[in-house]
Design brief:
Layout: E1 8-13, H1 16-27, E2 43-45, E3 49-54, H2 59-64, E4 70-74, H3 75-81, E5 86-90, E6 96-102, H4 107-110, E7 116-121, H5 124-134, E8 137-142, H6 149-153, E9 158-163, H7 167-171, E10 175-183, E11 185-189, H8 191-196, H9 198-215
Parallel strand pairs: 1-3, 1-4, 7-8, 7-9
Antiparallel strand pairs: 2-3, 4-11, 5-11, 6-9, 6-10
The structure holds 1-O-pyrophosphono-5-O-phosphono-alpha-D-ribofuranose.
Protein backbone atom coordinates (compact mmCIF):
# COMPACT_ATOMS: atom_id res chain seq x y z
CA UNK A 1 0.00 0.00 0.00
CA UNK A 2 1.44 3.36 -1.05
CA UNK A 3 1.52 6.00 1.65
CA UNK A 4 -0.43 9.18 0.91
CA UNK A 5 2.64 11.42 0.84
CA UNK A 6 4.36 9.05 -1.56
CA UNK A 7 1.76 9.30 -4.25
CA UNK A 8 2.69 11.02 -7.48
CA UNK A 9 0.77 14.30 -7.66
CA UNK A 10 -0.85 15.09 -11.01
CA UNK A 11 -2.20 18.55 -11.90
CA UNK A 12 -5.10 18.20 -14.33
CA UNK A 13 -7.05 20.98 -16.02
CA UNK A 14 -10.75 21.02 -15.21
CA UNK A 15 -13.01 21.07 -18.23
CA UNK A 16 -12.78 19.14 -21.43
CA UNK A 17 -9.20 17.95 -20.99
CA UNK A 18 -9.83 16.45 -17.56
CA UNK A 19 -11.92 13.45 -18.67
CA UNK A 20 -9.66 12.79 -21.64
CA UNK A 21 -6.60 12.80 -19.36
CA UNK A 22 -8.22 10.38 -16.91
CA UNK A 23 -9.27 8.17 -19.81
CA UNK A 24 -5.76 8.00 -21.19
CA UNK A 25 -4.28 7.19 -17.75
CA UNK A 26 -6.85 4.37 -17.38
CA UNK A 27 -6.28 2.96 -20.84
CA UNK A 28 -2.51 3.05 -20.27
CA UNK A 29 -3.04 0.80 -17.25
CA UNK A 30 -2.07 3.46 -14.71
CA UNK A 31 -5.45 3.90 -13.08
CA UNK A 32 -8.12 1.39 -12.03
CA UNK A 33 -10.59 3.72 -10.36
CA UNK A 34 -13.01 6.13 -12.00
CA UNK A 35 -11.99 9.71 -11.20
CA UNK A 36 -14.60 12.40 -11.71
CA UNK A 37 -14.26 16.18 -11.89
CA UNK A 38 -17.90 16.52 -10.85
CA UNK A 39 -16.95 17.32 -7.31
CA UNK A 40 -16.14 20.42 -5.32
CA UNK A 41 -13.05 18.68 -4.03
CA UNK A 42 -9.85 20.09 -5.48
CA UNK A 43 -7.75 17.09 -4.51
CA UNK A 44 -8.97 13.64 -5.53
CA UNK A 45 -7.01 10.54 -4.60
CA UNK A 46 -6.70 7.21 -6.34
CA UNK A 47 -4.63 4.29 -5.11
CA UNK A 48 -1.46 5.54 -6.83
CA UNK A 49 -2.07 9.20 -7.58
CA UNK A 50 -3.18 12.43 -6.01
CA UNK A 51 -4.98 14.53 -8.63
CA UNK A 52 -5.18 18.31 -8.30
CA UNK A 53 -8.15 19.73 -10.22
CA UNK A 54 -7.04 23.19 -11.34
CA UNK A 55 -7.62 25.85 -13.99
CA UNK A 56 -5.94 24.88 -17.28
CA UNK A 57 -3.76 27.99 -17.17
CA UNK A 58 -2.49 27.09 -13.69
CA UNK A 59 -1.24 23.58 -14.52
CA UNK A 60 2.27 24.71 -15.60
CA UNK A 61 2.65 26.72 -12.38
CA UNK A 62 1.83 23.73 -10.16
CA UNK A 63 4.28 21.56 -12.07
CA UNK A 64 7.07 24.14 -12.35
CA UNK A 65 7.04 24.83 -8.61
CA UNK A 66 6.90 21.12 -7.76
CA UNK A 67 3.53 21.16 -6.02
CA UNK A 68 2.61 18.62 -8.69
CA UNK A 69 5.12 16.09 -10.05
CA UNK A 70 3.40 15.92 -13.40
CA UNK A 71 0.55 17.62 -15.23
CA UNK A 72 -1.33 17.92 -18.48
CA UNK A 73 -1.49 21.16 -20.49
CA UNK A 74 -2.26 22.16 -24.06
CA UNK A 75 0.21 23.84 -26.40
CA UNK A 76 -1.92 26.98 -26.16
CA UNK A 77 -1.14 27.25 -22.44
CA UNK A 78 2.48 26.06 -22.79
CA UNK A 79 3.35 28.52 -25.57
CA UNK A 80 1.81 31.36 -23.62
CA UNK A 81 3.68 30.59 -20.39
CA UNK A 82 6.89 28.87 -21.50
CA UNK A 83 7.15 27.01 -18.15
CA UNK A 84 10.45 25.59 -16.96
CA UNK A 85 9.40 21.93 -17.02
CA UNK A 86 10.15 18.78 -19.01
CA UNK A 87 7.69 18.04 -21.78
CA UNK A 88 8.40 14.41 -22.66
CA UNK A 89 5.20 13.38 -24.39
CA UNK A 90 2.47 14.53 -26.77
CA UNK A 91 -0.70 12.92 -25.40
CA UNK A 92 -2.60 13.53 -28.63
CA UNK A 93 -5.72 14.64 -26.76
CA UNK A 94 -7.32 18.08 -26.65
CA UNK A 95 -6.40 18.46 -30.30
CA UNK A 96 -7.46 21.82 -31.65
CA UNK A 97 -6.27 24.65 -33.81
CA UNK A 98 -5.05 28.08 -32.75
CA UNK A 99 -6.41 30.52 -35.29
CA UNK A 100 -7.27 34.07 -36.21
CA UNK A 101 -11.03 34.38 -36.54
CA UNK A 102 -13.40 37.15 -37.43
CA UNK A 103 -16.50 38.19 -39.35
CA UNK A 104 -16.68 36.79 -42.90
CA UNK A 105 -17.14 40.38 -44.14
CA UNK A 106 -13.76 41.32 -42.63
CA UNK A 107 -11.83 38.63 -44.49
CA UNK A 108 -10.86 41.07 -47.25
CA UNK A 109 -9.61 43.64 -44.74
CA UNK A 110 -7.39 40.95 -43.15
CA UNK A 111 -5.77 39.98 -46.44
CA UNK A 112 -5.38 43.53 -47.78
CA UNK A 113 -1.96 44.00 -46.15
CA UNK A 114 -3.09 45.93 -43.07
CA UNK A 115 -0.32 47.58 -41.05
CA UNK A 116 -2.29 47.69 -37.81
CA UNK A 117 -4.98 45.49 -36.27
CA UNK A 118 -6.83 45.26 -32.97
CA UNK A 119 -6.89 41.65 -31.75
CA UNK A 120 -8.79 40.32 -28.74
CA UNK A 121 -7.43 37.14 -27.20
CA UNK A 122 -6.67 35.01 -24.16
CA UNK A 123 -3.25 34.45 -25.76
CA UNK A 124 -1.31 37.75 -25.92
CA UNK A 125 2.14 36.17 -26.35
CA UNK A 126 1.11 33.84 -29.19
CA UNK A 127 -0.75 36.72 -30.85
CA UNK A 128 2.14 39.21 -30.64
CA UNK A 129 4.63 36.66 -31.97
CA UNK A 130 2.40 35.61 -34.87
CA UNK A 131 1.66 39.14 -36.06
CA UNK A 132 5.18 40.39 -35.49
CA UNK A 133 6.42 37.64 -37.84
CA UNK A 134 3.89 38.87 -40.41
CA UNK A 135 5.08 42.46 -39.95
CA UNK A 136 1.69 43.68 -38.73
CA UNK A 137 1.50 45.94 -35.67
CA UNK A 138 -1.21 44.85 -33.25
CA UNK A 139 -2.99 46.22 -30.25
CA UNK A 140 -3.73 43.16 -28.13
CA UNK A 141 -6.87 43.36 -26.02
CA UNK A 142 -6.58 40.62 -23.41
CA UNK A 143 -9.81 38.89 -22.38
CA UNK A 144 -10.34 35.90 -20.11
CA UNK A 145 -13.21 34.21 -21.98
CA UNK A 146 -16.09 34.65 -24.44
CA UNK A 147 -13.56 36.25 -26.77
CA UNK A 148 -15.94 35.78 -29.70
CA UNK A 149 -17.92 38.80 -28.49
CA UNK A 150 -15.09 41.22 -29.32
CA UNK A 151 -15.42 41.43 -33.12
CA UNK A 152 -19.21 41.35 -32.86
CA UNK A 153 -19.24 44.40 -30.61
CA UNK A 154 -16.40 46.28 -32.30
CA UNK A 155 -13.99 45.84 -29.39
CA UNK A 156 -11.47 44.28 -31.79
CA UNK A 157 -11.06 43.60 -35.52
CA UNK A 158 -10.30 39.91 -35.05
CA UNK A 159 -9.65 37.33 -32.33
CA UNK A 160 -6.93 34.76 -31.79
CA UNK A 161 -8.39 31.74 -30.08
CA UNK A 162 -8.51 27.97 -30.01
CA UNK A 163 -10.98 26.29 -32.33
CA UNK A 164 -11.97 22.74 -31.53
CA UNK A 165 -15.33 21.84 -33.11
CA UNK A 166 -15.80 25.32 -34.64
CA UNK A 167 -19.25 25.50 -33.04
CA UNK A 168 -18.62 28.63 -30.95
CA UNK A 169 -17.43 30.55 -34.01
CA UNK A 170 -20.31 29.32 -36.16
CA UNK A 171 -22.99 30.11 -33.60
CA UNK A 172 -21.64 33.64 -33.31
CA UNK A 173 -21.39 34.28 -37.05
CA UNK A 174 -17.58 34.15 -37.12
CA UNK A 175 -15.16 32.00 -39.10
CA UNK A 176 -11.49 31.03 -39.17
CA UNK A 177 -9.57 33.62 -41.16
CA UNK A 178 -6.06 32.17 -40.78
CA UNK A 179 -4.77 29.02 -39.10
CA UNK A 180 -1.80 29.71 -36.82
CA UNK A 181 -0.83 26.24 -35.59
CA UNK A 182 -2.21 23.02 -34.18
CA UNK A 183 -2.36 22.45 -30.45
CA UNK A 184 -2.58 19.25 -28.44
CA UNK A 185 -2.09 18.33 -24.81
CA UNK A 186 1.36 17.46 -23.53
CA UNK A 187 2.62 15.71 -20.41
CA UNK A 188 4.57 18.13 -18.20
CA UNK A 189 7.08 16.86 -15.62
CA UNK A 190 8.67 18.80 -12.79
CA UNK A 191 12.44 18.85 -13.30
CA UNK A 192 13.32 17.82 -9.76
CA UNK A 193 10.66 15.09 -9.58
CA UNK A 194 12.05 13.71 -12.81
CA UNK A 195 15.34 13.13 -11.01
CA UNK A 196 14.14 12.18 -7.52
CA UNK A 197 11.24 9.97 -8.66
CA UNK A 198 12.71 8.88 -11.94
CA UNK A 199 11.58 5.22 -11.86
CA UNK A 200 7.94 6.05 -11.16
CA UNK A 201 7.80 8.88 -13.67
CA UNK A 202 9.55 6.84 -16.36
CA UNK A 203 7.00 4.08 -15.82
CA UNK A 204 4.17 6.58 -16.31
CA UNK A 205 5.78 7.95 -19.48
CA UNK A 206 6.44 4.42 -20.82
CA UNK A 207 2.90 3.22 -20.15
CA UNK A 208 1.41 6.30 -21.80
CA UNK A 209 3.82 6.01 -24.73
CA UNK A 210 3.04 2.31 -25.26
CA UNK A 211 -0.67 3.02 -25.23
CA UNK A 212 -0.32 5.97 -27.60
CA UNK A 213 1.77 4.07 -30.15
CA UNK A 214 -0.98 1.44 -30.26
CA UNK A 215 -3.79 3.91 -30.94
CA UNK A 216 -2.14 6.57 -33.11
C1 LIG B 1 -12.74 27.77 -25.86
C2 LIG B 1 -12.35 28.81 -26.89
C3 LIG B 1 -13.60 28.95 -27.72
C4 LIG B 1 -14.18 27.55 -27.68
C5 LIG B 1 -13.83 26.82 -28.94
O1 LIG B 1 -13.41 28.39 -24.83
O2 LIG B 1 -11.95 30.01 -26.28
O3 LIG B 1 -14.49 29.89 -27.16
O4 LIG B 1 -13.58 26.87 -26.57
O5 LIG B 1 -14.39 25.51 -28.96
P1 LIG B 1 -15.32 25.01 -30.13
O6 LIG B 1 -14.59 25.25 -31.43
O7 LIG B 1 -15.47 23.53 -29.88
O8 LIG B 1 -16.63 25.73 -30.09
P2 LIG B 1 -13.81 27.64 -23.49
O9 LIG B 1 -14.90 26.65 -23.74
O10 LIG B 1 -12.57 27.05 -22.92
O11 LIG B 1 -14.44 28.79 -22.60
P3 LIG B 1 -13.97 30.27 -22.25
O12 LIG B 1 -14.39 31.15 -23.39
O13 LIG B 1 -14.70 30.58 -21.00
O14 LIG B 1 -12.47 30.25 -22.06
Amino acid sequence: MIKREDKITVALPKGRLFDQSIDIFSKAGLLNEHISQKTRKLIVESENFRFLIVRAKDVPTYVQYGVADIGVAGDDVILEQEPEVYIPLDLNIGVCSIAVAGKPTDREKYFSNPTYLKIATKYPKITKKFFSEKGIRVQVIELYGSVELAPLLGLADFIVDIVETGRTLKENGLEVIEHIRNSSAKLLVNRISFKTRNDEIKKIINNLENYLTKVV
